Amino acid sequence: MEIKQDLIVESSFSLKGIYQGHYNITYKGVPCLKCPNDYVIYQMILNEIRPDLIIEIGTNLGGSALYMADLLDSIGNGIIHTIDIDDRSELAAKQHARIQFFHNGWEEYNLSLATNYENVLVIEDSSHHYENTFKVIEKFAPIVTKDSYLIVEDGIIDELEFSEEFGGGPVKAIKEFLLLHPEFIIEEKWTNMFGENATFNTMGYLKKTK
Which residues of the chain have pLDDT under 50? Predict the structure, then answer.
């Protein structure tokens, strides 16, 4: 079939453009700041492992928790513990029966709250500073269950040239963490699904294998 030259439209986009655009993403009207690629990956992971408990460190306005809670509804299983240092969540998130909110920061979260769940998934999405990220994943790694995930968000700041601002950021924390924790591996089927590290969570999908 012949394509007329005047119908050909050139396209141009950049990583920084996608990054800027992700600030405008909402879920059911609630800001939910994730890369579109990662939306797809999250629903596949939740369907694969069918978690009984998701611990999300970094609630913000609650859009991510709301998105995952609806996914758990479709699976018919699981709850979310979402943690932040204050309460900024919008009403739609607060009304979802699968979400429990903790507002005293990750340091005050009692890990014993996660002991009675068979499948536990943890998401670190707080400040993205290297030191904080490392401390968070060190604390929560032991409660991640075998074959589930410790997801470390926003390693993409390296590619966006923000690393210095974040003290090395999540990727630095991940590299040091993996040296100490051989029970975790980078699950490349997620990090490389759309191309090598074509995710905001660079090197950040960590699977617990033992």
Answer: none
